[in-house]
Design brief:
- The chain is mainly alpha-helical and about 140 residues long.
- It is built from 4 helices and no strands.
């Protein structure tokens, strides 16, 4: 997500939302490809429909995350607070719950996505690395 971490949080909300939407759509395409390979739909039309639904769902999750995170930072006037990312992740998780018509799924996704997003923000602030040589 080149450019997402550039600049202060709470600014350039449309640009940040567009970046997270693109990442979500890309993840949806990859996930849809695996799903089509593993589940082997009965027709080409079913495969296209499956790919479209998965891609649009993931793109929507990315858009909701990007918009909620940015607006939360702007409204709360705390642009570098990891709570903004928790709120964005939780909003995306709630969307999954609404999509599946299941409160438990929404609650668990809210907590899981929120905590993961908050740790991502904290890790970015503190310079954590998941791969590559350690910084000395």
């Amino acid at each position: 997500m080149a450019g997402y971490w550039d600049g202060p949080e709470g600014e350039q909300c449309p640009r940040r939302t567009w970046l997270t939407t693109r990442v979500g759509a890309a993840a949806g395409l990859v996930g849809a490809a695996y799903r089509i390979i593993l589940l082997q739909p009965g027709s080409a039309l079913a495969a296209v429909q499956m790919a479209a639904v998965d891609t649009v769902t993931m793109a929507t999750l990315g858009a909701v995350f990007g918009l909620t995170t940015c607006l939360s930072a702007e409204i709360r006037e705390k642009p570098e607070d990891p709570l903004n990312y928790f709120i964005g992740g939780c909003a995306s998780g709630a969307l999954i719950g609404a999509r599946t018509h299941n409160y438990f799924t929404g609650t668990m996704c809210c907590l899981g996505f929120g905590i993961t997003a908050a740790f991502t923000k904290i890790g970015n602030q503190e310079g954590w690395r998941l791969a590559g040589p350690p910084k000395m």
